[in-house]
Write a structure and sequence with these properties.
The longest helix has 36 residues. The chain has six helices and no strands. The chain is mostly helical. Helix 2 packs across helix 4.
């Protein structure tokens, strides 16, 4: 009788341990994948950001506001530094602060899961339906979208976009 009760307790513990592993293993794998894709694990290039990505935020668009108009000093996740009075570009220090914010909006190596690229992309092209600034990119073939995607993929010297 005593050995049967002990056997049941041991069996119950083993079942519980197995269930625990089944439930937590996917989270551990996802956490490892996220850590591998984090900016600390896969470095985003500041020089490529400054010469290729940041000018996109300043670029004049025929029927939409420039990114920095809404995002300079904003309180949302994509918060760019305000330009100094009389300046048309950011200082290196301001660019570094912008880089830190923008880096949090991308998944290095994966443009299609990066908020920076998907939020302003037209929904018909797979983007977010809720971007108050309009559709900055109609398709993923847009040259500016491609520049952003190349930077997120870690391709250095991904081109320069002029405002």
């Amino acid at each position: 009788m005593i050995s049967e009760i002990r056997l049941q307790k041991v069996a119950t513990r083993l079942v519980m341990a197995g269930l625990f592993l089944c439930v937590t293993a996917p989270f551990s794998e996802a956490q490892s994948a996220n850590q591998a894709a984090s900016p600390s694990a896969q470095s985003l290039d500041f020089a490529s950001y400054r010469t290729g990505v940041e000018p996109i935020f300043m670029k004049r668009r025929a029927d939409r506001a420039r990114c920095f108009v809404c995002h300079a000093g904003s309180t949302n996740r994509f918060r760019l530094e305000r330009l100094s009075p009389g300046s048309s570009t950011w200082t290196e220090e301001q660019s570094r602060q912008n880089f830190q914010i923008v880096s949090q909006l991308v998944v290095p190596g994966n443009p299609n899961t990066s908020r920076l690229l998907m939020h302003p992309l037209a929904p018909e092209a797979g983007g977010d339906a809720n971007h108050n600034g309009g559709r900055q990119f109609e398709t993923q073939n847009d040259p500016d979208w491609q520049t952003l995607a190349a930077w997120v993929r870690g391709q250095k010297g991904s081109g320069t976009s002029r405002p």
